[in-house]
Amino acid sequence: MGAHRENVVKAFDEFRQEIDEHHDRRERLIKISRDATNLSKKVIFLLHRTMTEESNNDSNPSLRVVRRGREKLREVQALYAQIRFEVQAERFWQYHRAVSPGLQEYIEALGFAHYLEHGTMVSYEEVQLSLSDENGIPYFTLPKEDYLLGLSDVTGELMRFAISGIAQKGGRARAREVCAFVRQCKADFERFTPYVRELSKKQAVTSQSLEKIEDAVYAIVVRGSEYDIPPDMLDDLIAQSISTFSSNTSAKTRLGQVRSGDDYDDEI
Predict the structure, then answer these.
(1) Distance CA 188, CA 114 (A)
(2) CA distance 66 to 50
(3) CA atoms within 13 A on the CB side of 79
(4) Which pLDDT band holds residue 4 (cuts at 50, 70, 90)?
(5) What is the C-alpha to C-alpha distance for residues 174 and 264, in angstroms, rounded to an integer?
(6) Coil, strand, or helix at residue 264?
(7) What is the pLDDT of residues 16-47, one digit of tens each?
(8) Which residue of 28, 95, 160, 175 sits 20 to 30 Å from the alpha carbon of 250, by its own alpha carbon?
(9) Nearest-CA neighbor of 156 among 109, 118, 117?
(10) How many beta carbons lie within 10 A of that of residue 127, not counting itself?
(11) How far apart are CA 143 and CA 100, in angstroms?
C-alpha cells in the first residue's frame, strides 16, 4: 500500500513539473513575441519617418532607408534565434498562438522594407530565410497563414506611405503605383480567404486602405487638371495646401493628444 502511494505521488510530481515547464515556456515565448512586436513597430515607424525626411533632400532615398530598417530587423531575428530550441518539431504548433502576433508584425515590417527597396511583395522563401541561421537551417517552419496575414497588414503601411508622400516630389506618381499594387494584392489575397482564418477581416481593412488611396489619387488628378501649370509647380502647390491642412489639423488635435497621454516612443 505504501509503495503504491509513493508511485502515485511520484507520478503527480512529474505531472506538476511538466505543467510548470509548459507555463514557464509559454510565458517566455509570449514575452519574446511582445518584444518582437514592439521592435517591428519601431522599424515601421523608422521607415515612415526617414522616408518622409529624406525624400525632400534625396531623389532616391529608399536604399539608405531600407538599409537602416534591415539593421534593426536583425534584432528581431536574434529574438527568434533564441527560441529555436523551445519550439522544435511539433512543439511549435503547441505554442503557435503565443508567437503568431509577433511573427505577423515582423513580416509586416520586413514586407514594407522589401517594397520600398524592390517595389514588390516579399516572398515566403525570403521570409523563411531571414528566420534561419547562417547555414540556412530554419529556426522553425514559418506558417503560411502567418505569412499571408502579415503581408495583408503591409497594405495599411503602403496606404500611409502613399498619402503622406503625395505632396513630395514624385509623390503623385508613386501614389498611383501604390494604389495599383494594393488593388492587386487585395485581389490576390481574396482567393485565400476561405482557407485562412481572420484573413477576411484583414481584407476588409485592406479595402478601406485602398479606398483612401483611391480618393487621394482621384482628388489630386482632378484638381491637377484644373491648373495648366508645369508638374513641379503643381507639386509645390499641393505641398503648400497639404502643409496648411496638416497644421490646422495638428492644432485642433494637439489638446486631445496631450489628454490621452499616448506618446509612443518611436526612437530606436
Answers:
(1) 18
(2) 9
(3) 21
(4) confident
(5) 28
(6) coil
(7) 888 888 888 899 999 999 999 999 999 999 99
(8) 175
(9) 109
(10) 21
(11) 9
Helix (H, G, I), strand (E, B) or coil at 29: helix
Q: How far apart are CA 90 and CA 254, in angstroms?
A: 50
Amino acid present at 86: E
Report the distance separating Cα 198 and Cα 263, nearest Å: 29
Which one-letter amino acid corresponds to residue 6?
E
User: In the structure grid, which three cell numbers stand for residue 152, read together?
Assistant: 495583408
Report how far residue 101's alpha carbon sits from residue 15's, in angstroms, rounded to the nearest whole number.
29
3-class secondary structure, 138: strand
DSSP per-residue letters across 45-76: HHHHHHHHHHHTT-S--HHHHHHHHHHHHHHH
The string of pLDDT tens digits covering residues 110-155 is 999 999 999 999 999 999 999 999 999 999 999 999 999 999 999 9
d(CA 138, CA 128) in angstroms, rounded, equals 7
Task: Report the alpha-carbon angle 175-37-123, nearest 5.
Answer: 55
